Amino acid sequence: MAAAGYWGAAQQPRGQPRRRPRLLPWARAPVGCLAAGIRATRYLLQSDGYHVRVRAAGGVCPQVPRIPATGGPQETAAATMTGVPVPRRLVSITLDNLDDLPHRCRRCVFWELDPVSHARAQEVGDPALEKEAWISSTLLEWGSCGKIVYVDGVPAGYVLYAPPMYVPRSAAFPTSPVSADAVLLMTAHVLGEFAGGGLGRMLVQGVAKDLTRRGVKAIEAFGDLRSEGLSCVMPADYLLAVGFKTVRPHLHYPRLRLELKTAVSWREDVEVALERLLGSMSPERALRLA
For the segment 15-66, what is each residue's pLDDT rounded down to a tens digit? Predict the structure, then answer.
């Protein structure tokens, strides 16, 4: 099937002016195009206002649902599942983007305060203000202490980290203290709509790159072996999956460690898979997933 004239006169309703398809930036073809045997040449996304189709010199890929540029988490996740690449961006947490944290996490000061101060803040204080004050003071005294990952402009997850002296809660764990040459990975969270896309590893890798540039030798974290649902302590299984090793076992809260010389050599599993399948199909390297 020729590429030209896909929205030709035969498909245009009679008595209505012909609509010119909206052209979107160059992008990789969905994985389904490979299965259909369509020649992997130059692909262009087009939209008739309701669907997105991928046009190729050798044919047209099956249509996929149109994903609005300003869509929310569900739409962005759907775009990833259909093979349409969406930009991912990792930025440092500042006072300007602090409100992009999930509402529950924005008001959580589990790590930022000791147990007594935490209870007092929950009862009579303002946890959101305490969180902002902690971020501000840590940025001024030590530097970057968190990352937020955005998928197509939508906040999808975050991570917080700091030296143990800035994290009063760390002294309350049975497997403390954190090693003197390590920074504590306090917490990390990826929204459920974006789970399974490699963002958890992307967050840890971003932390590793930042700390390596600052001369830190390792990252340590407390894991939760009994984690059920949302928790301020990361599941131990997650930490093990992204490369941490247990350095002090415990039935509930083991302490784990990641040597940064290992972490900096990572590449995200999703990115590697896409590079193998679609790397030769992209006309511009700038559009590869970050």
Answer: 555 554 443 443 333 433 333 333 333 333 333 333 333 344 444 444 433 3
Tell me 9's DSSP state: G
Dihedral pair phi/psi, residue 88, rounded to 5°: -120, 135
Model confidence pLDDT, tens digit, residues 95-145 = 999 999 999 999 999 999 999 999 999 888 899 999 999 999 999 999 999
State whether CATH 3.40.630.30 applies to domain 88-270.
yes
State the sign of the Cα–Cα–Cα–Cα dihedral 261, 242, 148, 78: positive
Give the residue from 244, 240, 251, 250 showing the smallest Cα distance to 220: 244
Distance from C-alpha of 86 to C-alpha of 193, rounded to nearest angstrom: 14
Give the Cα separation of 43 and 96 in Å (integer).
38
Cβ atoms of residues 171 and 222 within 8 Å: no
User: pTM of the full predicted structure?
Assistant: 0.64
CA torsion through residues 73, 76, 81, 86, sign:
negative
Bridge-based pairing state of the strands 182-190 and 218-222: parallel
Q: In the numeric block, which tokens belong to residue 226? A: 């009994």
Residues of the chain with CATH 3.40.630.30: 88-270
**What angle do helix axes 127-141 and 115-124 make, rounded to 10 degrees?**
130
φ, ψ at 238 (rounded to 5°): -65, -45
Strands 59-60 and 64-65 come out as unpaired
